[in-house]
Write a structure and sequence with these properties.
about 525 residues, two-stranded antiparallel sheet, disordered N terminus
Length: about 525
Amino acid sequence: MAHLNSGHVNPNPTDQADPADLAQTDPTRTDLPAWDRWFELTRRGSTLGAEFRGGVVTFFTMAYIVVLNPLIIGTATDINGTYIGGGDNPVVAIGLVAGATALIAGLLTITMGAIGRFPLAIAAGLGLNSFLAYTIAPLMTWPQAMGLVVLEGIIIFALVLTGLRVKVFNAIPEALKYAIGVGIGLFIALIGLVDAGVVRPGVPLISFGINGALRGWPTVVFVFGLLLMIVLVTKRVKGAILIGILATAALAVVLESILEIGPFNDGNPDTPNNPVGWALNVPRFPDTWVTTPDLSILGQFSLVGAFSAVGIVTASLFVFSLLLTDFFDTMGTVTALAHEAELTDEDENIPHLEAILLVDSAAAAVGGAASVSSNTSYIESAAGIGEGAKTGIAAILAGVLFLLAMFVTPLVSVIPYEAATPALVLVGFLMMTQIKHIPFDDYTIGIPAFLTIIIMPFTYSIANGIGAGIVTYTLLQITAGKTRQIPGLLWIVSAAFVVFFAIDPVTNLLDSITG
């Protein structure tokens, strides 16, 4: 298999198989174990050690979702003023969502590893869960809101079965695919900086630290972790990112035990925020190590109930918004990770793409059926790839850790944002190196690529960046008289994104027409 060179420094060079051996490797080799041939471990130049480290790092960099998704889904109320599960206690709702979030993430990530054979983890999608909790749920009941997610997942699943999703995937110009990877690199680096408190929402746009300065011990922990990982990766130490996360988490636990720093927000509305506190998880060992999850919210959804609650037009627009975001978020993530792991061939084909997209599409429906919001592929999987992961074995291990997290949810909260997010910043650099493949001297592709790259981090949305790039690319090809170079599907995708970006005025127009 021919590999693209993403240009980044491999932190674990000793984990790579010899090129001469790779040339002799194919899936039919009988001298390799069946599991090796299935996962293509030797063929892809990986090792079990690299896959193990990659799986652990992937889990740690996205384990926050087990804590954060419950805080989003579990603290919002539906049209009846009730929390998910039908109760009036947000604490109970948070516990319900936590156990279900870990369960579904674990099962789907294992499925992705076993069937998709790709180092990609799946969990409840951020952004989509907020849209569901704060925009959709207040207009209907929780089961009705989750039914829209299930319906959206079924539609995407059908698009994969018909081959349309893969065709759209292949219709995107090669340079834009690289731009997607670069944009995602900047996006996850920004996520790391924001979650660590180094970059904060401010006036008019953003601010550096607190009032223009880095303050607080959690920030010190983040800087220590980032510098440690940079040094270890530069020196090509095996397990550099994993070592960095664990060492930084240990430092955080020690500092919290001595200084009692506390959280940024303790959950009490009467208590002011502590600007120098930990962003989400407070790194201290819990009183209870093992919990028994309550999974009673599984299966609480109404497939078509939302249409009677808010009307056909509004419900359809909600489904369209969820669908387009899910559709292209995954497309961008898979493209970027395949390039980063050097798994594409000379024709830009990604191995087992249909299986990858099939699992991801089913994940949307499964997440809705489990009442934890649409589940989707996570860009944080890039951290595991940065450790050398190239196969589904890493995903299976990450999935197993999610299943264990169902019972040790308190332990997951020991590692703070500030210990895990340095990995995202570092991986952002690794993905940024793909920018050298983009021909910026050709403005008809350079400008769409530029918009793809900058809009992803600035709007906190992969789909927004992809949409801006595709619409601009189509427009410039038209004005350059190159309409024949635009694939037929790209016309349809461009039109869909125009509607997507104009969803608010379109909704208002339809409301005025229908009275």
